[in-house]
Amino acid sequence: MSSTPALVPHGGHTDHLGATATAEGVNFAVYSESASAIWVCLFDEQDKEIERFELDMHQDNVHAGLIANIGPGARYGLRADGPYDPDQGYFFDPNKLLVDPYARHLDRVFVRSPRLRLAREDAVDTAELVPKAIVPGGGNDPAQPRKKVPGLYYELNVRGFTMRHPSVQGPLRGTVAGLTTRRVIDHFKHLGVDAVQLMPTAAWIDEGHLPQLGLTNAWGYNPVAYFAVDPRLAPRGPQEMRVMTDAYRKAGISVILDVVYNHTGEGDSQGPILSMMGLDPQTYYRWVEVDGKKQLVNDTGTGNTLRCDHPAVQRLVIESLRYYVEELGASGFRFDLATILGRDPGFNPEAEMLEKIKTDPVLKKAILVAEPWDPGPGGYGLGKFGKEFAEHNDTYRDEVRAFWKGENGKIGALAGKVSGSAEIFDVAGRKPSAGVNMLAVHDGFTLRDLVSYHDKHNEANGEHNRDGHNHNSSWNCGVEGETDDEAINHARKRDVRALLATLFLSRGTPLIQQGDEMYRTQQGNNNAYAQDNEITWVDWENGDGALVDFVGALKSFRKAHPAVSHDHWLTGQDRNGARDVMWLHPDGREMTVADWNDSGASVLGMHLRHKDDEVLVWFNRRVEPVVARLPAGEWAVGIQSDQSFEVAFTEGTATLSPRSVVALVRPKA
Fold this sequence. Notes:
It is elongated, with a radius of gyration of 27 Å. The longest helix is centred in the C-terminal third of the chain and has 19 residues, at 486-504. It has an 8-stranded parallel barrel with strand order 12-13-16-19-20-21-22-23. By secondary structure, it is α+β, with helices and mostly antiparallel strands.
């Protein structure tokens, strides 16, 4: 019997998209409404194209074919033919080798080249420039994620987190395998992390302007192949991801993947032709007609927008999400620019794409988190994603920063944020945990830089400091940037501790970003997406161990005190002789309307009760100590942000340290 690959005439099936190994060979199926022909190209280990087969089965816009005498491990790419008319949104060119949108495993990373975007009449074969997909073998036993509300999210970038970790050596650095070392997992357990949130892992490509600047994309928010883990992160294949998620599940930690179903790295009409743009751009991307010509909609600010209201795109999204859950063991997802999922062309919270995610029998068991905004029209959707989703709460970040910065009139906003942002989330049966509270995430200052820089310093990005947010609600404690002034450095660390204490003593679900627990700096860069270097790599050797311990203590305190963490809305109403919250003025009385309206108010007490647990939290942003009168009875310090200051109790009062948070507890009988 011949072992030469051969197309089985009309032997293909259209049930499963992508490459599926069978007893007869490998079945290939590709969706395209406008391609006139699609070929599967096979490559040998020297990257030479050895065979090319046109898919001969066409049904419901799926091109399919069965190739005999090949199996798992075979390397392949696609070519497609059809109209070439860029003004009407068609870019078909058989010279362009294309990556299967359903590829599970790629043999190399994506690299930019001008040849990837040459016009058809000038085109040369791009096969040598494009990663080859590898036919997958048998799958893993399906993972069984247990949906639980995380008590603490930890956002990390795989490369940045592991590149300088002392226990991650050699080729493991910068990979998901590097996350499986015992000391890395022990760090998360020490902090009390319930879920690690990995920044994008799907295979991505650099933005067009970066190579000439000598920079590369460090974050991964520019995906091309949604199913494939980027070879930089999993050089030995997607199984590395499953090994990692299994290890974390055993440690009691969920793994959440940051997914980017809003655009791809193919960019605008001048971008590289790598996959969907060469297979079926009208299906996969949103377009608008202007003066008789079609233009890509750019609701993401990245050149294109995924067409999430099309059934083929919805299938791609659902099936890739299910793959990550069932095959690679993910426990959930954080959806980048999630309002694109409901683009209609504004935001429709009842859009079909969102409903499919919420009701899918596999995905409804997963943790679902939305970044509830995008740059497009009607793109701010905070609070609109329904009870199935948690949502990143940027209002928490903004208002808590504003309070500690010293802005006037923020005492009421602080109370609203630390009690769970009820004005946003207390609807339709949602709980405070629906709000993911953060002070700093990847796109912005680190906590250390937040209190060390008044302005951003993004010069290293090569855009003359024009990129990144200008409104950061940051402060520098008297000197811009790093300093040897001990008093300023003490003030900065004191402020970071107060911010972290505020976060952990708030209703809602706390999130911290990598390194903030050890006082990490990015040298004032608030948009370090292109800095795959020491700017974004966590400096483990010089981390602040005392701050790490403090964060772990905050999580332990939160967990031990349901008065702080219980997932219910505070009402202030008297129930069985007790109220779940009272807001106190430092002179001991309950806050009055006049107190709330005092624009200079800088001290607030939050008296919490849940059953027999009683906690009194004081927030003091003044630069001097404050004497606060306490409710009658005995109190003791539970946890305080400024551990260099001893809280003095005298005749029913407590002296609070400057710029601090103190949680007092009522000793139990």
